[in-house]
Design a protein that fits this description.
The protein has 319 residues and is of the alpha/beta class. The chain has nine helices and twelve strands.
């Protein structure tokens, strides 16, 4: 969750703290031991081989578990959200395609967005996939003031999004660009790059003599939306596909409008602990494979998110 320098810098959840692969109960445990006669094949306890093309690239711990544990904040439709008791959306769909290349299941567990990276680094999850914008600050483990707060993470970049400005239906304040938010109240999700972007915008507005932005931060984006709907804030800053989805679906399409800012596109990445380079490289190889075989684009198109497709897998390409 989250877009570029101005959620998740302004295009950056860094959703703009995301999607349907659901863990299968009783998933087959894979060991990865024994001779490999074909690339990507390994013996399981039952003697059967895992024939997934990229299984052999995974760390042995993941091979043994047969599962990649994913931290996400499943409140960010259409990227990741809960439906019928399952986490679905763009990110789980991409993960499902990755899993077919790697021969393992991606098991999503929802948590609070601004705690996801910390939870991964303490071992609760293997990766974070939650519309998380790839930024240099996150790569280096820096806070919004540039102070070192952690080891940082590596990203495998899989999607692009720009800033979406979600406003009340009818756009009563006539918001067309980010500059129109100067001197007004804006709602954002806490811990996203959009919270940082709103602060940067406020400073810019102040320098331009237009009045600072009044920022209200909430634990979830749903709370920020509620504030806008009630008229307590003029806009919620979001990722473009998310803002568009909310405008199309909330209240039958009668609650909000979405204003896109396509000039500030940023990259979403799967976050991996910097020490886990083997898993990072396996994910990158799998992403390239699903881009080539078409399953990646199909996962995006299912949620009308094809405009955010990347053409090749990259690591740490965010700014």
């Amino acid at each position: 969750m989250t877009a570029s320098t101005t959620r998740r810098t302004t295009a950056a959840r860094s959703r703009i703290a995301a999607v349907g692969a659901i863990a299968v109960a009783g998933a087959l445990i894979l060991t990865g031991c024994g001779d490999q006669t074909d690339k990507g094949s390994a013996a399981t306890p039952s003697g059967k081989a895992n024939s997934a093309p990229l299984f052999s690239k995974l760390p042995k711990k993941i091979q043994d578990a047969g599962v990649i544990k994913v931290g996400t904040d499943a409140t960010y439709a259409p990227m990741e959200f809960t439906e019928g008791g399952k986490i679905v959306g763009v990110d789980p769909g991409v993960a499902e395609a990755l899993g077919k290349q790697l021969g393992v299941t991606f098991k999503f567990e929802s948590g609070t967005f601004d705690t996801l990276i910390g939870s991964m680094q303490t071992g609760r999850s293997d990766v974070v996939m939650s519309s998380l914008t790839d930024t240099k600050a996150r790569q280096e483990g820096l806070d919004d003031k540039g102070a070192k707060t952690g080891a940082g993470v590596d990203f495998v970049d899989y999607f692009t999004a720009s800033t979406g400005i979600l406003v009340k239906k009818g756009n009563p304040d006539g918001i067309k660009t980010l500059d129109d938010l100067c001197g007004k109240k804006v709602a954002v999700q806490r811990g996203t790059t959009y919270e940082d972007a709103a602060k940067d915008l406020s400073e810019k507005c102040k320098k331009d003599g237009k009045g600072e932005v009044s920022i209200e931060s909430y634990p979830t984006d749903a709370e920020a939306q509620t504030r806008v709907k009630a008229g307590g804030a003029v806009a919620d800053l979001n990722d473009s596909p998310v803002a568009a989805y909310i405008a199309q679906t909330a209240g039958g399409g009668n609650d909000f409008e979405a204003v896109a800012n396509p000039t500030d596109a940023g990259l979403f990445g799967i976050a991996v602990d910097k020490k886990n380079t083997e898993l990072r490289d396996a994910l990158k190889a799998a992403l390239d494979a699903i881009i080539k075989d078409g399953s990646y684009k199909a996962a995006l198109d299912k949620w009308n998110a094809g405009s955010g497709a990347v053409t090749e897998a990259k690591t740490n390409a965010g700014s």
